[in-house]
Write the structure tokens for this entry.
Amino acid sequence: MNTLLESCLAHLQALVAFDTQNQSGNADAGRLFEYVKQYLPGFHIEQRGTAEQGDLTLHAYRGAPKTLVNIHVDTVPAGSGWIADPLALQVSSDRAVGLGACDIKGALACWLTALEAGPSDQGAGLLLCSDEEAGGSRGVRAFLQQAPAAYQLALIAEPTQCQAVTAHRGYASAKVSFAGKAGHSSEPRALQDNSIHQASRFLNAAQALASRYLQQSHPLYPSLSGICLNAGSISGGLKNNIIAEYTQLSFGCRPLPGQSAGNLLNEIKALADAENIINWQILAADPALPADTDSPDANGLLQQLGLSIAKPVSFWTEASLFSATGIPSAVYGPGDIAQAHTADEWVALSQLEQMTMQYLQLLSGASK
């Protein structure tokens, strides 16, 4: 095992030991930030938010960097099925196992290792956030509202097997409530007045719309098609012999790059009988990557850095939020998304080695 990998695993062991499971707040993120700060000599450090509220961020930069590396330090809850303590890193001949090792503390361990090994006179920029797994992205949104330094490229760490992803879907979701007219189920009007029936007709129309979208090929990203409509939950009604008076449906969909999440939700909303909807609540309307057709393209910058560019993916990341502010952005990190959020989560040692070397190249001059 080479020296760089040994250093990386030492950092990863320390990072995994911090309990940053994101349930309600993330109090241990503050302790993790303190660990990181001791390895940032000569950096200007800006810390915002609180760990208890789950929106803690740390922005550290040295010199005048043009590239920002963004890494979230929180993890999903460990859940059941772990063979060993999820907060105690286990290293075998080919992998490191631990909560967050893949998603995405491994990237931070690589970055810290590269920083230690690289020159101390080059620009470097790092943004840590503690709330990515909670949804809402309050930390990143607050950072972007503060008019960050003139970064020309943002690399958002997620498991992409050390390839740069420059396009992915957006994410949109809504909760809609339908009002029926209660009564005895023996009345023929139940067919129209039952709120469950209303929700069913709406959902059938939405499915038909999604099927039509599935037939359309994206002109720039042919590997992505459709809007990935998914009904997440539905509840309503009291008994079989009572016409259901109230039904609530939650659904999500994933717009394509260049497709407005808000416009897509409006298109779906228009499928419902407006007089039966008593509430329409948008839960999320996050852009795709690139955020829109006018967003800057990161591909040229990535090619200059010698980074491999991967096919578009369907999962959403905070890279789209950077893109929406005009910063060319890519998703880029070690590990396989298939290992994220699983029991005995692991990252391959070869991926950690590769990512460390790529960060070292970036920190050795590419981010001047």
About this structure: Residues 3-168+289-366 form a domain with the Aminopeptidase fold (CATH 3.40.630.10).
